[in-house]
Amino acid sequence: MRILIVEDEHKIASAIKRGLEQQSYAVDVSYDADDGLAMATTEPYDLIILDRMLPGSLDGIGILRTLRDQNNHTPVLLLTAKDRVLDRAEGLNAGADDYLVKPFAFVELIARVRALLRRSPQATNSVIEYDDLSLNTLTKTVERSGNNIQLTSKEFALLEYFMRNPERIVSKDALIQHVWNYDADILPNTVEVYMGYLRGKIDKPFKQSKPLLHTRRGFGYYFGTV
Q1: In this structure, how many other beta carbons lie within 10 angstroms of the beta carbon of residue 56?
Q2: CB 25 within 8 A of CB 18
Q3: Distance between terminal CA atoms of the chain?
Q4: pLDDT digit string, tens, across residues 198-211
C-alpha cells in the first residue's frame, strides 16, 4: 500500500512517515499544496493524509475539491488544528473520508489509516488467505501450512500486494508504484532481487505445496496456483 502525506510541518511529516514505514507502507511526502496536488494527480496512491493548512496556491480543502472534481476518489484523511464542528463539516463536505484533529496519538492515526484502507474492495479483511498461505495485516505475520514465515517490511509489502491481486499478471512498474516510495533508489534488478528473496521464503521451503510466485517473461509476475 502506498500513502502520500501532504504536511508542511516537517517534524510531523517525518514522524508520520517513519511510523507508517514501520507498518510496511510505502510513503511519499510533500510539504506544500501545489507539489502535493501534482503528486496526488500523477501518482497512484491508496491513501492521502492531507493537512488542512498548507503553503501554496491552495489549502487542503482546495486540494480535496480539485481531486474530487477530477473524479479522483483516493481516500483522504484530513489533518487539522481546527476542531470546531463547522470546520470538520467543511472538510467532510469537501470530500474528506475522515478527519483527525492535531495533536493526535499515532496509534489513532494508524487505526484510521487501516480503517480507510479496508474500505477498498480489495482490502476488506485484515487476514488475507490464498491456498495454504495467510497474511495478517494487523500483526504483520505470515504463515504457510501452519508454519510462521519471517519477512522484512519490504517483502511483507510486496507479498501483501500480490495477495490483494491474485491470479493476474502484475507488471514490474505496478509493483514499483505501489510498494516503493517515489524517491526510492530502484535499480533495474531491484524487483527481481526481492522476488528472489520472497520465493526463497514462501515457495522453496514448502516442497509439498504448489508454487505461488511465477515469472511471466516480458509481462511481469503472477501470484497463484497454476
Answers
A1: 17
A2: no
A3: 26
A4: 999 999 999 999 99
User: How far from 29 is each of 73, 92, 114, CA to CA, in Å?
Assistant: 19, 22, 19
CA–CA gap between residue 198 and residue 226 (Å, rounded): 18
DSSP letter (8 states) at residue 97: S
Q: Among 63, 55, 44, 59, which residue's Cα sits nearest to residue 2?
A: 44
Kindly report, residue by residue over 56-84, the tens digit of the pLDDT. Answer: 899 999 999 999 999 998 999 999 887 77
Q: For the whole model, what pTM was predicted?
A: 0.67
**What is the CB neighbour count within 10 angstroms for residue 34?**
14
Comparing CA positions, the residue from 176, 146, 184, 142 lying closest to residue 160 is 142
Residues 140 and 49: their CA atoms lie apart, in Å, by: 22
Measured CA to CA, the distance from residue 13 to residue 7 in angstroms comes to 6
